[in-house]
Amino acid sequence: MKWLQTIGLNACLVLGFTAVSINPSVAQQAPKVGEAKTELLWLGQAGYRITTPGGKTIVIDPWITGGPKTPAVYKSDIAALGKVDLLLVTHAHVDHIGDAPALAKLHKTVLYGPADMITPLVTLGVLPAELTHRFNKTGHVKPLPGIKVTAVQAEHSSLLVWKNPATEKLESHPAGEAVGYIIELENGFKIWHMGDTGLFGDMKFISERYKPDLVLMPIGGNFTMDPDDAAFATREWIKPKMVIPMHYNSNPLAKGTLEEFQNAMKGSKTKVVPMTEGQTLAF
What is the pLDDT of residue 35? Predict the structure, then answer.
């Protein structure tokens, strides 16, 4: 099958599991029983669909209809993502909250997020309370059997821009603080989605405490870490088995590139796993 390709034999030997590139046309198929695979589809920017080893679907930071790099099949119809069992949003900026409220309503799925982001969504009437769950940094939830999500620090801001239906004008509402998430799946595999963040020293503590296998890390700069800072954090503090760079290539103000990050990571034992928008990898 031509669409299968390994991401590196050495990585597979060291890490004890495989990763392959999967054709988008079959990306929604659940892993076969006993294979214990985790699948990641990159929707662009910081948006991912995670299919867990147990066949559950987690969507995080889904900037889909407005995302310039969103694959066309999803950009034109968010229902093409398939079922959504869990929604996670790291903060209220439009390129992260994006289509999350619409997905919550479409699938009657609870949106989990920082407490002070969720509250204005409810008080402004964006979502009913029963489709939301509030939690904060170091708080953890078990929203699905075998899945645990812990909110962790991110060094960033958060603001909700909302169109008032009575005035047809945009309003800005405080939305608390941004977070990242440690997502532990049924087989113990841990993903750290960092959200938007700059450097902060407790990245080292978070890594030591939660021991993520895979880190989804912003590298674009201007709003987040740039490639050099992201590589420094990976090499010196986090030291995960694998890192997937994200939050670049979608905004002209965020100029960091994959090549710059790869160059800054030379000599590191961490495997850099590049993705393209619309690609699915299985771990």
Answer: 62
Count H helices and E strands in the chain, helices first: 8, 17
Q: 38 and 212 in contact (C-beta within 8 Å)?
A: no
Beta strands in 55-169 (DSSP E): 57-60, 86-88, 111-114, 132-135, 140-144, 147-153, 159-163
Indicate the DSSP class of residue 9: H
Q: Is 104 helix (H, G, I), strand (E, B) or coil?
A: helix
Would the pTM count as exceeding 0.85?
A: yes
Strand-pair partners of 44: 47
Structure confidence at residue 216 as a pLDDT band (50, 70, 90): very high
CB-based contact 219:251 (threshold 8 Å): no
What residues form DSSP beta bridges with 214? 191, 242
Superfamily of the domain at 9-282: Ribonuclease Z/Hydroxyacylglutathione hydrolase-like (3.60.15.10)
Q: Six-digit token pair at 200?
A: 């902060």
Are residues 248 and 220 in contact, defined by beta-carbon separation less than 8 angstroms?
yes
Exposure pattern of 248-267 as b/e (b: 16+ CB <10 Å)? bbbbeebebbbebbeebbee
Interatomic CA distance for residues 279 and 70, integer angstroms: 11
Which 3 state secondary structure label does DSSP give 126?
coil
